[in-house]
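Appendix B. Chain record.
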Amino acid sequence: QSTQATLLAIEGLEAARSLRDFGWQTNIATLTAGTDYFLTFDAINNRWTTTTNNAFIDGLFDRRLVKTAVCRDGSSNIATCGTNDPNTIKITVSVAWLARGATTTRVFETYLTNLFNT
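Structure tokens predicted for this chain:
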């Protein structure tokens, strides 16, 4: 389960990159910072989508994606406060599951930029 959760979290990061690649303004900029989103794969259009409706993966794993705004300081470095950078976000993907009466969680974070200016 630990290995599967880790792979699901990594897949979540790749899905976030895919969302970015299919259109920053459509798929990333519209997400509300701090809101839990869940990833689904649209097999008809062959792409990832987000929803606010949770569906457990294999009836066990709870995978969530959260967007956080990124600020820059006067030297354009990422900082805890400063000027908001609308073309950079932090993505956190967490996968939690219940095993032996306790919840275990794997958390991965990365930054995404509006690489293709879309």
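Further analysis of this model is presented in Appendix C.
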